[in-house]
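Justification of computing resources. Each target in the renewal requires a structure prediction run like the one illustrated here; the chain below, 592 residues long, is used simply to show the kind of job we budget for.
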Amino acid sequence: MPDLSMSPVHASTRASRKRRRLVAAAAAVTLLGVASACDSAADANDTITQGGTLRVVLPALPDHLDPQKIAAAMDANISRLISRTLTTYKAEPGTASSELVPDLATDLGRPSENNTVWEFKLREGVKWEDGSPVVCSQLKYGVERNFAKVFDSGLPYAELMLADNATPYEGPYSGKELDSVVCEDTQTIKFRLKQPAGDFNYTVALSIFSPTKQGADGDKDAYDIRPLSSGPYRVEPRPKDATGFTLVRNEHWSSTLDSVRKAHPDKIVFAVDANDPAVTNALIQDQGADRNTIVLQTNVAPNFLQQVINDPKLSQRVAQGPSGAVRYFAINTELVKNLDCRKALSFAFNKRKYRQAMGGSVIGELATSMIPPNLAAHAKFDIYRTLSDSDGDEDEALKLLDKAKNEGKPCPDKLKVALPDNDTIARYVKTMVDAYIRIGIKVELNRLPAKSYFGDIADIGHGNHLVYAGWIPDWANGSAVIPPLFDGALVKPSGEQSGSNYSFLNDPEINKAIADAMAEDDLNRQYKLWGEIDNRLSDMAVTIPVLYPKSIRMYGSNVAGAFIHSQFGAPDLASLGLKDPSIPVDVTSSGS
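Resulting structure tokens:
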């Protein structure tokens, strides 16, 4: 899922592609590196007391709360508080955060017919915020909404995996039903898949498989702001132009029917503040509402980073660990068609200065691939000599530019680079401007609205040569990286969304390689194939992977239970609480 943790995840559309995912045991093993990222601060926290108001700072409002529209990691983290799924991940630090557990279902599902049919039994007694029961027909309706053509966001897995009707299904608003999702009774749901999937129970942990109550989504824009809750919190009404929102308790939620969500605070207030230095400074000062505050998606500001991590007291108020993501720039292959030009941009990029602007080596490892090193599909290669010369190779870049010019295919001497409208990110990207000037290329930074950013850069007509992006795998395999980012089936005409294929790559050989890897049943062989494709994509220079970032998220002295969850690359909202719930959040943060 898209990740913009320095400021996600954005819009993701549908694609016709096959996929294989890890079996449960393999997923636990390959996620071990990420799960072990949880820092010791979580263990050092004082005891959480029920109640009080937790304040969560975001760089921008979530793109979506409607579960069927959710694709971003941040949105999925928030959604888990209000929209339950058949399965989910444990809300515990360490390796446990990678473990799948039943949620709305009573178990992890019962596969049959060579893993092409999956059946789940629903817990009895789970209720919506209006007091009505959650039943099978609402799960079916939620899944069917993924097929509705009125949606231009969300993840594509329902369409990719579920067997379609004889006449292509266009969602429940057409008045028809999807034949491959059947309610045996009010508490039993059965899915029929296009092909075997031994771990479909991981797929149904995604927000897009949450139930939606028929009729509640009549106003689709309003439902995206305030969906009906089946979790421990409900969304308080807010105006469309609000700069924040609040979750309060869903009085019909029962802790005895939910073993995952801790639901410690009575209220969770989400506030938008993109001024990272001011937010970090406010948390260091630790006064008023900041004592009850945690930063969800933004790291400690670079100018405060060394102070925070080296101070024994301040460092105890930091949740940190590998995010499991890759931070990169996608090169628009529609605008930069010449391979030598793309390679020149890759060679000239100064990754050392970029990381230094972010705070130095403590912030993460320099990247050479799109599949992060915590996954078994990761392959070691370094085509652009990042690890031996992280300052880039200007001479090699200039040779490639000259070659392109001599062949009558000169490279652009001006580049337009898209990034979210965030001062901190702009400071990082400025290092790219400096590096490219040294090879005679002028860069214009195009700061786009943060809330619509991923939707904007998914339109092939956006006109930018490079775009700032990030990705967290939806599960622990290369199949959750390569296809969603590079499958040509995702590329759509201007005015439509091309999913997360921000390079707009539609290469027949890569498309075939993806299909071949998806069809590979031997998991170890499949890992190898994904790594080989990643290597080929690097040689094609369709992206510039920069960093495997580390999450370093600060919180106030009254916040407890903070750790980096492997699925979200951020603090797990379902685990957070307060030491003293009597401390109010009745003043504006000094960081605002």
